[in-house]
Amino acid sequence: MKVFIVYCHPSEDSFTKAMCDTFIEGVTDSGNExxxxxxxxxxxxxxxTEEEYLRDAYYKTSPDVAGDVLAEQKKINSSxxxxxxxxxxxxxxxxxxxxxxxxxxxYGFAYGEKTMKMLDKALILCSAGNSREKxxxxxxxxxxxxxxxxxxxxxxxxxxxFIVIDNTxxxxxxxEKNWDKNLQKVYEKGAALFL
Length: 195
Ligand SMILES: Cc1cc2nc3c(=O)[nH]c(=O)nc-3n(C[C@H](O)[C@H](O)[C@H](O)COP(=O)(O)O)c2cc1C
Description:
Blueprint: E1 2-7, H1 15-29, E2 33-38, H2 39-42, H3 50-57, H4 67-77, E3 81-87, H5 95-104, E4 119-127, H6 132-137, H7 140-152, E5 157-165, H8 173-177, H9 179-191
Parallel strand pairs: 1-2, 1-3, 3-4, 4-5
Helix pairs in contact: 1-9
The chain binds flavin mononucleotide.
């Protein structure tokens, strides 16, 4: 089985990078394959052009989508699962990943007469500086889940899961304390992705 990993963090010096590396280890150790889009490394262009906007807004399938978008869509359609790995920025994915959705979820692929395949599984693996309790009490965790699972991934995968690893900001004592335990959890998620 093959998983397409969309990873989005501006720095290698990060817990999120460690999550991505560890998740990949879990995937490969369990005998599965992966493809990776590292959005910052690829310098993936995330602003829609006016032409792209008009194509999507008028529900048109022409002109053809741009080559970089088509490449991402092909990665999706050649995979069994998709996983998004990112840090929470202002209760959202980083702008670069949001822009990836703006362009890659194009008309005729992700909506309309869809050509996007129904994936077996979609997993969100994000890190957040705040504690889970704070995110739950404020309703922000629900908002993040709603946007990712209730909108972007809705009807596009048979199973969906949203995992937040909390307390990961640098000033938080739990970041270092829970580092190994959190990565172990991430490894196990990678190893059990297709079970
Ligand atoms: C610009 C920015 C915005 C952030 N916004 C949030 C937020 O809304 N909620 C939250 O829990 N953490 C927020 N954080 C904290 C990050 O999610 C946290 O620092 C990150 O997950 C730590 O992992 P890293 O070492 O991979 O960067 C923010 C961090 C930055 C830099």
